[in-house]
Structures are given as structure tokens and as C-alpha cells.
Amino acid sequence: MSPDGPATGPGTEEDVEAVIRRLTEKLRVRPTHNRTRALLAIAYDRRTDGNREENIRRILVHSDSLSRKKIGKALWTATRVLRGKAFRDRSATGGLGVLDLQVALSFFGEALDVYAKGSPLWADVQTEMAITLLRHPDLWPNARRHIDKALEVYRTSASGPALAVAYELLGDWYVLMARKTGAARARQAALGEYSRSLARTDRSRDTARWARLQLAIGRLAHAGGPAADDIAAGHFAASVQALTGAPLRTARLGALRELADLHLRRGRWADALPHYAEALSLALDVAREPATVGGRRAAAVGISDLAHCLAYCQYRQGNPDQAVLTLEAGRGRLLLDRLADDAEAGDCDAPGHAQRTRLRREIRELESRGYGGMTYLEDSERLEVLRRKYAELTATAPRAQSAASIAELAPREPGTALVVPLISPVGGAIFLVTHTDRCVAPENVLDFPHVTTRHIDWWLEGEPESDDAVDEHCSVDDLGAPAVTTAGWLAAYRRRDKEAAGEERWRTTMSEVCGDLGRTLIGALANRLLELRSSRAVLVPAAGLQFLPLHAAVITDGPGARYLLDEVVVEYAPSAAIRSLLHTRRGGRRTAGQALVAGVSRYPSLPPLPAVPHEVELVGALLDSAPLLDSLATRERVLDGMADAAVVHLACHGAGWALAGPGFRMAWDPPAILYLGEEGLSFQDILGQDLQKARLVCLSACDTGLVEHSLPWDEHEGLVTVFLQTGAAAVVSALWAADDRSTALLMQRFYTELTAAERAGAGTAGRPGDPARALRRAQLWLRDSTRVELAAVYERLVADGHDRFIEPYTELMLAGAPDDRPYAHPAFWAPFTFTGA
Fold it and tell me: Of the candidates 390, 287, 405, which has an alpha carbon nearest to the alpha carbon of residue 344?
């Protein structure tokens, strides 16, 4: 490989892989050899095979801290360009977004200072600057001058491929201008630049760019309205046809999606279906390849969207059974793989069990850092080796997979209904599957043709600030605008501590969203559940619904408002297959056993939680466990206590990591997610535990039920699934910041209900304690109780000699009229959800 820059070197993927192997072997002998590291970074930049997120990591590691004196100006400058490209690409694969783009621009600036002005290499860096600026939400207009500078050089040097790149970028610039201004002239200009680029692109030598230009031209044609749909489809189809072979799989997937989306928007279900089916198959194959957590996250982007679109086509083609199975295949794939590993590991009689167990343990240890922090290159490479070995050992072993039939998908318990929502860009539906179903009955299909992904966006984020994201031919009226038009519940939740009256505005918004959820979706679902006489609903939320308190959707308005939780016990599950695995895991586990109860009320830099001492005392008494409070609730003691606990109850501050964005993970030392005074528990700490005895983990802390907002939502990655991975059968968690005082009362009632049910079922053939049912009863009790009724809890404790409860009793009774229901608002009783079995 030439040291002159990343534009030279081997031409085929096989050549690149051979160079990587040779340079990697050299690096093992001389780990700090600068030139070898630089050339290896260049090789990974040219690599098209493998997961892009992992290639980016290797580029950044191998190009870091290189000595200019040791490798020479030319190679050093080339690596600065590589680092810029890697940071730019990382911004789109879970990095730091705009910050990564700024870092990329600084590296390109360094290279421009070295290359001679007006030289081809100088023009190449101008091109990289333009690409980066075009991705920046604020600085993109500045890309034009860099494109013009590159064009000036390329025109005089008669560089056909380079000119093609510059003309393509100029087309991209005009497209952005058209989006911002709506000017038809800008679209025409973009079409002209793309056509110039296409004329200079050799399809056989630069297939990826040729196909990309076909897509760009197709998009412009599509913007012209339905009359140009056939022209757009022709360009999209040409792109798909050109993109063949393993190195172009990801590009082919994108082209298939564009072609299928066009047909979907026009209601051409039969035309869209085969393209979505191939795209989903490709996406699932790609998602199985990466070794690291970050790589799998990046590969999982879009899987669920594809599944929802394919399922909607299948549903509209009259095949609801296949639609439900497709939705199941697109949910929680990463978690299912991990839980399937656990299930396989439990088979002690399987050949090679001990070796597989050792491999799984080491894989989990290496993976655990990737949940809350960055992964070292050595860990990534070790993971690749271990995963390859594990795959070889388990190639013939039976593994848990998504259901192959509705009968396999159906819940095992009588009176239980599986609720599977389908939300696509053009319409939605809800499917119900009951205990005895072998197919989806027509009467168990609830059609919502006007409920789309736009509704989810409204419920979460509110009215968009601009119309950039709206399809040009799908008006708001066509989609059916929800009632909430000011602020979504997540948007209001983020702002509640940053503005005056923010808390009250958030609660008002939540009420609006819960009301609209009931009117739009959940009211019809509740009616059907009543007709089926289902006492329990297992919700499999997706497409953003997992951020919403569906159990608190209003199904009857007015003074005596009723919610979904009034009608049925509500459970949540990432997928039906995952719930089935957890149901098997639950087995005979009971909550009557050793318990870990820990809480922290005093913090050096966070607001105190004055009700936590009351909560852990009440819970500890009910579970017959001495609670660990404040200074006793150290990281070491909490982790030690988890191993033998049937119930783990933690009451403390949560880190708010789920809404913090990708920056939360950009740390070498995994940060805390549950605060315990001066220290806390990280994802890595929890993943290192073995909770095979845990029937229930209860997280009485803020935001513990949220999945990470910046990751693929339907992978359900979050604190709940981390505890499920460690062996717990079920988790109670909170979707938002729970009120301190009401939570203590709720938890006291929850464990009162749970332990009573456990005692009633002990020694009989009856069902052991049911946490989901106990949680429902506690929530309805808290919601409906007056001040006098709530105060009775404290009065009994005071009468028993617990004087510390006099203060909360007094505060409660002085805060309002005796017959008030102080915790009637969903903000108090609805944050907690049950996930598992």
C-alpha cells in the first residue's frame, strides 16, 4: 500500500483483507510501530466488508498519536484526513453527532495547511470538508465554497472520477437548499449536477456511486409528484439491480428500502412487499455479524422500521398472521440472542457445555463495557475471536428463535391476550393473540388506517419545528393529526426542570397524550379485551410506543375517568419470544425468599430523597430483610447481596442516562446509572452479576424503564434488559422521575399485595405471588385513595411505635382537604411498569 494517501492501494476487497492480515501480524511483533499503524488505518478506511462501526474504531485507534517525524509528512497528513473521515462517519453511527463533525473539520484543516494549494490532494481535502459540512445542521451552506474550490482544480486536471464526486456534492448542496427554501429551481439545479456526475461515473468501476446517483435522481423525480412515480421507481430499480455482491449489501439494502417506500406511500402493497422482504432479510443477516455491542447497535438500526413496513404490506394483502410474525422477527433481536445463549447454557447435559459456559462468561465480560462506555480495540479483537469460536461450538445446537407460527406466539396462560401493535408511515393496526389461538382471528384485528409514525412523533416530541421531515405528498390532514399539537410528553419532560412551571406543563402534556392515546388507539383495544374477557394484556410496544404509559391511556373521559389499567393487568415485553424465555426462566421462583433492600436518601451533590428511609423500612419489614440505607448501601454490599436474592429492591436516584444522548457512552470508565452516594452501579457492574435466583428486581428510581433514546428503540436496550440478561425473571421500573413520597406509599402497598398473594399460594397448587397483578392493585389504590385513607397507613405505623412517620403523616394531612385524592394524576401512580414473566 502506497504511503501517498488513502486514495491509492489495493483495488479489491480480497487485496484489502490480505493487507490487513499482513499488517496486523507485523503490529503484533512491533505494537508501537508508527508506519505499520498508519498503513493499517488506511487499509481499514478502504475496507468495505465487515461492520462500518468497527472499522471506524480501528481507524481511530491505529491513526492516533502518530509521530510525523517517524512516518513522514505525506503519510502523516494522509492519516489526518483518515481521522477526519472516521470522526465524520462516527457521527452517524452512535458517536457524538455535531461534535464529531467539528473534530473532523479540524483534522481536514490540518491537512489543508500541509498540502500545496491547488494540488489534487488539496482539492481532495476540500471535497472531504464539503462532505462533512453538508452533514452539519447549521454549517452546510459553507460547503459550497469548498466544492467550488475542488471543482476549479478538478476541471483543469481533467479528473473524471474526482469531477464526478464534486458534481454529486454540488447536487447534494442544491437538494438541501431546495428543502430549506422550497425553490423548484434548486431541484432542477440538483438534477443537472447529478446528471453531470452520472455521465462521468463508470458503472463497472464505481458501482456504489453510480447506484447512489440513481437514487438521488429518483428522489428528485419522486418529489415531482405521483405523475413521476414510475420514473422514480425506474431509477431506484436501476440502483438495486447494480448493487450485487457481499461488499455492496448495505448499499443494496438502502436502495431496496427506497424502492419499497415509494410503493408503500402509494398503496402498492404487492409491489412493495418483495423489496421489504429482501431488505429485512439482508438487515437481519448484517446484524448478526458484528462482535461488539456498538457494532450490533449500529447494524440493528432500521430493522424494526423494515419489519413494520413489511408487516403493513402483508396485513393489507390479507395476511395478518404473517404480519404478526414479521413484527416479532423485527423486535428485540439483540436481546433475544443473548437470552437464547443463557437458555442454551442452562443445558448441562449438552456436549461441550463447560467450554461454552467459559466462552459465554468471557464474551459477557468483554461486552459489558460497551453498554456504558467505549470498547478498547484489544477487547474488540478478542470478542471477534471468541464469538467465532462460540458460533462454531453452537452451530448445530437448537436455539430460541422468533415464533414460526401464531400457535407458538400465543401466551401460555388462559385469560391472557398478547397485544401486538403495528405502526407504519402510512397506517397502523393492533393484533391480539389469545391463549388458544392458532391464527389471528379477523375480529382480533383492530384497524387504524390514520395512525402512523407521525402520531408517535407527536406524542413523544410534539409539533415539529419545521416540515423538513414530512413527506411532500402526505399532508397532516391525510395522516390525521392527533389532538396534542403543542408539546409531546418527552419534550415536555426534558424541559420540566429548565423553565418556570415546567413540572405543571409536563403533567398537563402527559394528560393530553394519555387522552389522545385512548381516543386514538387504546380505547378500541380495551373494548376488545373486555369482549374477549381477558384479564391480562401483554403489550409488545414498538416504534416508540415503549416510551409511553399505555396502561395509563384514558379510555373513558370525565370526572370518573377510566384507564386501561382499570380493565386489565398490564405487562410489557420486548417480544413474545423473549417473554416465553422469561416464562420458562421464572419456573418455580417465588418472591418469598432472601431479599436485598437498599436505598440512598442523602447525596453530596444531588437533591435528597427524604421518603427513601421510610420506603426501605416498610419494604424491608414486608420482605423480612434488614435494609441497607445510605452509608450501608455501598456498591460492594449491594452487588454482593444480589447473588442470593429472590427480590432485589433498589431505591435511589437514577442517572437519567436514557435521554442523555450518545455522549453518555463516550467514556472509557463506564459511568453510573444508579447512584449510591459517592459511587454507583454501572451497566458493567450489573452485567457482571448472576441473578439466577431473582424472581423480581424492583427499581424505585427515576427513568429506569426507558430505553436509550439515541439507539434503535425496538432493540429495547436499557436498564431493564440488562437485569434480564443477568438472570432476573422480571423487572419493575419507572418511565419517568417518580415522586418521592407517593412512591414510598406505592411500594409499601405493592409488597403488601405481593406478599399476601405469595402466602396464599404457598403450599398449594395455586399460582405464586403475581407481581404484575400486585403492581396494578397498588397503583389503583394509590390513585383512588383520599388523604384520610393514605394517612391511615402512617397512623398504623405510629401506633406501633414508629414515630418517624409522624412527619409524613402531618405533611400529607396539611397539604389539602381530607377527601382530596392527592395522587390521582398519572404522574404519581403510572410511572411504574412490569416487564418479564
Answer: 390
The arrangement of strands across the sheet holding 416-424 comes to: 445-448, 427-434, 416-424, 536-539, 569-572, 832-836, 730-734, 696-700, 647-651, 595-599, 628-629
Is the pLDDT confidence value at 482 over 70?
no
pTM: predicted TM-score of the whole model, two decimal places = 0.89
d(C-alpha 796, C-alpha 632), whole Å: 27
Pick from 623, 640, 634: which is nearest to 600 by CA?
A: 634
| Residue 315 burial (10 A CB sphere; 0-12, 13-18, 19+) | buried
Mean pLDDT within 652-666: 82
Q: What's the rounded Cα separation, in Å, for the pair 491 and 297?
A: 24
3-state secondary structure at position 66: coil
Return the residue matching grid coordinates 424494526.
304
| pLDDT for 783 beyond 90 | yes
Cell of 665: 457512552
Question: What are the residues facing 629 on neighbouring strands?
Answer: 599
pLDDT at 487 over 70: no
Name the residue among 132, 102, 97, 128 with its Cα closest to residue 115.
Answer: 128
Measured distance CA(115)–CA(755) in Å, rounded: 74
Amino acid found at 836: G
Report the alpha-carbon distance of residue 250 to residue 206 in Å, rounded.
15
Cβ(578)–Cβ(339) below 8 Å: yes
611's grid cell: 421518603
Rounded Cα distance between 112 and 110, Å, is: 5
Region label for 118, one of left (φ > 0), alpha (ψ between -120 and 50) or beta (otherwise): left
**Residue 810, all three cell numbers:** 402531618
User: pLDDT category, 825, cuts 50, 70, 90?
Assistant: very high
H-run or E-run covering 636: helix 635-642
C-alpha to C-alpha distance for 770 and 752, rounded to whole angstroms: 12
Between 17-21, 156-160, 178-182, the lowest mean confidence (pLDDT) is in 156-160
List Cβ neighbours of 231 (8 Å cut-off, separation of 6 or more). 218, 221
Q: Are 758 and 768 in contact (CB under 8 A)?
A: yes
Coil, strand or helix at 492: helix
Cα-based distances in Å from 478 to 309, 459, 472, 473, 729: 18, 18, 12, 9, 43
Q: Which of these, 714, 715, 709, 607, lies nearest to 664 by C-alpha position? A: 709
Mean pLDDT of 596-619: 94
Considering only the C-alpha atoms of the chain, give the largest distance between any 2 of them, rounded to a whole number of Å. 93
